[in-house]
Amino acid sequence: MDIKSLDYKYSKPYRYPVRLSFEDDKLVIYVFAKFAKSLLKPYKALKDGIKDHSLQCKNDLFTYADAICEGIVRNWNGSYNLPDGQNVKLDVRIIRYNGVKTKQRYLKFNHEVLNKYSFVRSPFYRCIWGIFRNNGQFESFGLNWTPRHPGSVYLRKTNYLKTYEQTAAHEFGHVLGLGDAYGAYYRGYYEAPGTGHYMMNANTRVQPEEVAMMLKAQSVGKMQYFPRVISFENFTKRFQQVKARKLADKNRKQNEKKNAQKKGALTKR
User: Fold this and answer.
1) For residues 181 and 191, what is the distance between their CA atoms, to the nearest angstrom?
2) Under a CB-based contact definition with an 8 Å cutoff, are residues 161 and 43 in contact?
3) How far is CA 7 from CA 10, 90, 222, 223, in A?
4) Counting beta carbons within 10 angstroms of the beta carbon of residue 232, is it exposed (0 to 12), middle (13 to 18) or buried (19 or more)?
């Protein structure tokens, strides 16, 4: 696939919250973003007493929306040598909703408070048939992705600003049409081989393979997924990991309780 031959033309552009366009020597990704009111407030550390050096470099007017934009642009902008030898330069440009009524459809960013994780989700009416449209991919049950309907982003607060920004960049990968690579339950707890340093696995850095998958998703109109294997062994390993984690948490709490009791006894003396 010659990326230069890809012609991203939209009959009704305003219906697409994310649009791609080749301009000069770059592939520009226009993102029309609308942020929930809670994301327009000044960014604050999740817990008191946490020393976040990244946050200390920001002024008091730096918002959650600013952090989201910063994370997406910093991680996705750049030059990538694709697996097939071609080179592509990505330039993400985020256009924020300014309150003026328009036909333009916007990508919605929300603050998530109910779940312990961040995610991108389609409206309920699209979720129902997503799994059938995507050849039984369980991941598509919650996100029935197309370029015209990339879903809405829900982000949890994190302890550190960089973690929040990297999470935003990961979720933006879903908006572009990429599935997860880590061992999630909907992947049968199977981690795609060789993806430990990928954005769609560990929120680390966007890789050329991910860019190539994104280009294909945008071209064919279907989300691209990493290899998945469902096996009894994967579930057994996951069960053992959860069991070990619970035991470690139990021992930690017991040790904390014992230390507190010792300190109390010494104080009484």
Assistant:
1) 6
2) yes
3) 9, 16, 17, 19
4) exposed
Which regions of 149-237 does DSSP assign to beta strands (E)?
Answer: 152-155
Using CA atoms, how far apart are residues 174 and 178, in angstroms rounded to an integer?
Answer: 5
What is the rounded distance in angstroms from the CA atom of residue 258 to the CA atom of residue 152?
Answer: 46
Pairing of strands 107-111, 26-35: parallel
Q: Tokens 């340093």 label which residue?
A: 197
Beta strands in the chain (DSSP E): 18-23, 26-35, 78-81, 87-96, 107-111, 119-121, 152-155
- Contact between residue 119 and residue 246 where contact means Cβ atoms under 8 Å apart: no
Mind listing the pLDDT tens digit for each residue in 23-45?
888 999 999 999 999 999 999 98
In sequence order, what are the residues at sequence separation of 6 or more whose Cβ sits closer than 8 angstroms to the Cβ of residue 141?
A: 127, 130, 131, 186
152-155 and 78-81 beta bridge pairing: unpaired
pTM over 0.85: yes
Q: Are 164 and 155 in contact (CB under 8 A)?
A: yes
